[in-house]
Amino acid sequence: MRRTVELTDMGGCDAGPRVLLLPGLGARGAGFRSLALRLTDVARPVLVEYPEGEHAACGAKVLADQVLRVAGAVDAVVASSFGGMVAAHLAAGGATRGVAFLGSFTRTAHVGPRGRLIAMMGPIAVLGRPGWAAASLAAWRPVPSGEVADVVPTTTVERLSTLRRAFAIHSEPPPPDLKPLKVSCLCIQGDRDVLVPPSSLERLAASLPEGTPRHLLRGAGHVPYFSHPDDCARLLTPWLHALAPPGLAALADVDVDVGSAA
Questions:
Q1: Alpha-carbon gap, residue 89 to 65, rounded angstroms
Q2: What is the pLDDT at residue 251?
Q3: Is the alpha carbon torsion for 170, 175, 176, 179 positive or negative?
Q4: C-alpha distance from residue 129 to each of 26, 152, 157 (Å)
Q5: What is the pTM of this model?
Q6: Contacts of 4 (CB under 8 A, 6+ apart)
Q7: Residue 257 scores a pLDDT above 70
């Protein structure tokens, strides 16, 4: 059981930006490993694992505070699904200069009518006990049995942690609007995403700074970083190049607060 945020530094390019990879509600940061390995030529990827059990953060804002305390300020964040809410709090507080949203959102309204039911993901995780079928549906392709736990919560502790976070989503204010902020954003969406539908892409992009690029990956589901790491790496590489230091050194000296918007 993880009592705090845990980081796995994947090494990589010393001159490149330091980038956090944030999973979704019930997924593991380890699911980003294939993408992270493809980014080591241009960046310094860091896998993030959220706390579990009684120590699990109850909401995106609390979780963002925990991530910041352990990871500090970074150049970029790549976020999946619910991780987009966590990333938005980090960006609004000045803890990162860029956010890439992968099948993601910063407000449940971006998901459309089903956003009102997102808290039900918690009971589904506990009572439905998702496994191979759910993971394969999320990835929109068969998932090897040894990798199912990277996509859906498979242990009792993970399921209960997912329940707590799902119920907390509507109990706290959403992240501040990123549209007026000086933060570089990028959107990648799978056209076969059954959890965050493709229609979410335009709603999310409308809440981000003008000119934010958006890409629709054909044949990709809810976890394109897991199922289509080469495509994601191709789209992320030029964006990460633009976020390379010297901004890194400046960020390291900034005292940030994810609770305050710029």
A1: 9
A2: 39
A3: negative
A4: 12, 9, 12
A5: 0.92
A6: 51, 55, 66, 70
A7: no
Residue ranges with strand state E in 83-230:
98-102, 184-190, 214-217
Sorted by sequence, the CB contacts under 8 Å of residue 25 that are 6+ apart come out as 81, 82, 121, 125, 162, 165, 166
Query: Burial code of 198-231, b = ≥16 C-beta within 10 A, e = fewer?
Result: eebbebbbebbeeebeebebeebbbbbbbbbbeb
**pLDDT tens-digit readout, 81-99:** 999 999 999 999 999 999 9
Lowest mean pLDDT among 5-14, 73-82, 175-184, 238-247: 238-247
Return d(Cα 118, Cα 103) in angstroms, integer: 14
Predicted confidence band of residue 38 (pLDDT cuts 50, 70, 90): very high
- Would you state the structure tokens that stand for residue 105, as one six-digit string? 């959102």
DSSP string, 26-74: S--GGGGHHHHHHHTTT-EEEEEE---GGGS-SSHHHHHHHHHHHH--B
Distance CA 53, CA 164 (A): 9
54 burial type by CB count under 10 A (0-12 exposed, 13-18 middle, 19+ buried): exposed
Whether residue 255 is predicted with pLDDT greater than 80 in this model: the reply is no
Distance CA 66, CA 192 (A): 32
